[in-house]
Every structure is written in structure tokens, then in C-alpha cells.
Design brief:
Layout lengths: L7 H18 L4 H15 L12 H18 L6 H9 L7 H13 L7 H9 L1 H4 L4 H13 L5 H9 L6 H67 L2 H17 L8 H18 L11
Length: about 290
């Protein structure tokens, strides 16, 4: 058989696709691979819609997007994947099945399935897409990787019941799976609520114990301050002032090295001891209070 003769634009895109695949797999140059994919998609333009056969422009464009998605994921730029793809297909309904599948699996792996909630719903609701052979597998993928992880059980049931691709036996199997997933979701919610209540109770217990300790400390501090105030109220201030003045004379005004000051210092020390004993005698000790 003769080799397929592609149009010049498709040949250029196919060449860029081959370069991008080599950069992705062999050289691990992910940024350069994305650049080749973008150049290939731009060369095809917006008119490369769905077309039959592996040599069509639509197939080349889809393959370029698949390589670009993988390269972006390798660079941990998965948040850009959906917007990057939609700049070439414009609306979710026009996404090829392979591209939609990769997007669902990618955002499910990074635990961000809500990104594909509206996109998948729009694609599955399109009448043209319902005639595609991949429709059933993509619906199942959307069901298990997007709707059920997000707790969208009613939407999942409506989607299964309204799908003409599945027969009654398959629909019952899917509905049973949805019911089981709903029960597991409910049990997790109950366990989570119980754990939160237990944690709140433990927090309240700790706070209650701390409050009681703080109250005890404040009570003891109040008693100590009251005792000190009572003690200082009972002090003979005249004797205290006299003792302070005598100490001032001894330390500041007198020369301890002078022999003439020794008898006077001795008398001042005796007076200071008498004043100290009078100040801190048992009569002036603060009374013990409960």
C-alpha cells in the first residue's frame, strides 16, 4: 500500500508531534515538548474538528494534546491542563474522548475532581458525543472518579437512569454501587462528627482544668496581697523611718575607719536592732486568714 499523503499543514503538525514525543519520552525535556505541541496545534488551526482515521488532522491534534497533557503533568503544572486544552477546543463538548479521559484521571489523581464536574457533565450531555463508542466508558469513568468522590449521589443516579448505553442489568449494578458509596459516605461523616465532638469535649475539659487552676492562683494571690497590705498597715512607720535614718548616718555620713566614730556606730547598730525587732515582732505579724 502507498504511504498516506498528508496535506502540508498536517505533515508539519505530524512532524512536530514526533519531535514532542521524543522530547517527552527520550530526552525528558518537558518544556520543549509542550512548545512543540503548541506549535503543532497552532499549525492545524481551529478548523480541525473530529475526523475519521488515524491520519486525520483531528487525530494529530488529539495526539498533540495528549503529549502536552503528559508534559505539563510531569512539570507539576497540572492546574493549567484544562485551560491549556480548552484553548484549542474552546468548549468542553468538542474535547476528544481520549483527552477527556486523561483530564478526568489527572484531576482525580491530584484529588481535585471538582475541576471536571461541569466539564464532564457538558460533554456527556451533548447529543453528538452520546453516539460515540467511548461514551459508556467515559460515563463510567466520570461516575467513579468525579461524582462519587464529590458525594454527588443524586446526580449519579440520574445520569445512570438516563443513559441509554447501559442495559437494565448494568444500570442496577451501577445503582447498587452508588447506594453502597452513599452508605460509606454517611458512615465517614458520622465518624468525623463523633471525632469532632470528642475533640471538642477534650478541649473543654482542658480549658475547664486550666480555668480552675487559674482561679486558684488568683485566689492565693489575692490572699497574699491582702496579707501584705494588712502587714504594712500595722507597721510603725516612725520606727521604720528612724531605722532608715540611722542606717543612712552609718553608711553615708560617718567614716567607719575613724576611731572616734566606733562607739557611735555601736550605739546606732543597737538602736537599729531594737527598731528592727519592734517592726517585725510577733505583734505586727499579719493574721492568718482562710
Amino acid at each position: 500500500s502507498e504511504p498516506l499523503a498528508w496535506p502540508p499543514v498536517s505533515a508539519q503538525a505530524a512532524s512536530l508531534l514526533e519531535e514532542a514525543a521524543d522530547l517527552l519520552v527520550l530526552h525528558r525535556d518537558f518544556a520543549a515538548a509542550v512548545e512543540r505541541c503548541e506549535a503543532g496545534c497552532d499549525s492545524l488551526g481551529p478548523g480541525s474538528g473530529p475526523g475519521p482515521g488515524p491520519g486525520s488532522s483531528a487525530e494529530v491534534k488529539c495526539s498533540l494534546c495528549v503529549v502536552g497533557i503528559q508534559a505539563l503533568a510531569e512539570m507539576n503544572r497540572w492546574r493549567e491542563v484544562l485551560s491549556w486544552v480548552l484553548q484549542y477546543y474552546h468548549v468542553p463538548e468538542h474535547l476528544p474522548p481520549k483527552v477527556l479521559e486523561l483530564c478526568i484521571l489527572l484531576y482525580s489523581k491530584v484529588r481535585e475532581p471538582q475541576v471536571m464536574l461541569e466539564v464532564g457533565s457538558s460533554w456527556l450531555s451533548d447529543q453528538t458525543n452520546k453516539s460515540l463508542p467511548e461514551y459508556g466508558s467515559l460515563l463510567e469513568l466520570y461516575l467513579f472518579h468525579v461524582l462519587l468522590p464529590l458525594g454527588q449521589f443524586e446526580g449519579a443516579e440520574e445520569l445512570v437512569r438516563g443513559c441509554d448505553v447501559f442495559d437494565s442489568e448494568q444500570q442496577l449494578a451501577f445503582l447498587g454501587t452508588i447506594c453502597e458509596s452513599r452508605c460509606q459516605w454517611t458512615r465517614r461523616e458520622e465518624m468525623h462528627s463523633a471525632a469532632e465532638e470528642q475533640q471538642d469535649g477534650a478541649t473543654e475539659t482542658v480549658l475547664g482544668a486550666l480555668s480552675r487552676k487559674l482561679l486558684t492562683v488568683l485566689t492565693l494571690l489575692r490572699r497574699a496581697l491582702r496579707s501584705m497590705s494588712s502587714h504594712f498597715c500595722l507597721l510603725p512607720y516612725k520606727k521604720m523611718l528612724l531605722a532608715t535614718f540611722l542606717l543612712y548616718l552609718v553608711v553615708v555620713r560617718l567614716d567607719p575607719a575613724s576611731p572616734t566614730s566606733l562607739p557611735f556606730i555601736y550605739k546606732l547598730v543597737q538602736l537599729f536592732r531594737q527598731a528592727w525587732a519592734a517592726v517585725f515582732s510577733p505583734i505586727h505579724r499579719p493574721p492568718i486568714q482562710d
